[in-house]
Amino acid sequence: MQEPDSFDLEGAGATTGTEAxxxxxxxxxxxxxxxxxxRGWWDRNADDYQIEHGTFLGDGRFVWGPEGLDEMEAELLGxxxxxxxxxxxxxxxxxxxxxxxxxxxxxxxxxxDLSHRQLQHALRIGGSFxxxxxxxxxxxxxxxxxxxxxxxxxxxxxxxxxxxxxREVRRVLRPGGRFVFSVTHPIRWAFPDEPGPEGLxxxxxxxxxxxxxxxxxxxxxxxxxxxxxxxxxxxxxxxxGFRLVDLVEPEWPLWNTSEWGGWSPLRGGLIPGxxxxxxxxx
Length: 282
Fold this sequence. Notes:
Helix content: 25-40%
């Protein structure tokens, strides 16, 4: 079975040395197993990821997905000139490119990631903001510590219970604060993860919420990705105390001729690849 689309290519099944290729399957995977597997995957694969995709992401851009939608233009967190002095938490920061852009606008970002190795790349690139290695389901911050929280393909697609993350985000947000996050568009789970014509035919049920798992020879998960339908995402947001104010489905721009995993100009011109949820805490 082919993996679902993932902007961070977390299902690429990369191995080192003489390790056996993991087995791809669909099976149940809980909160602890998912967190442990994905932390290990990113620690092993962060170097290759930054080599392959660092140029597209840049050192100080804020890109919401493989379509290339830039926060400077999208203003989903608000006008750039209004970010000055704001306390902002980035979840699933990777090498902290988005936090670096936020800092350049005068904001006070904190970059959080599950992977220690990804944060080492953030240190390599540089920046004066804090880096925190922690699980998004247990944020190590005080209540009402941030004005804004953002996540570009971080955490939400890879946790067994996204409501744990959403409730933690609500806790650390100040009243009136905004949380914006992007994930693989749920409809992509019905299609093969292929950039060409073979990726345009439905091959699985959109309603099958069984997690995608890559596991080793002993059956231990080494990577996990979880599917939520569009309706699931909306219900998760509402039940966690947020108000959904916008749902953005970026169209593939003519300037972007690159392929990234299952994303491509061909597929991007026909079906959505990214969903961005703009939420506010009352």
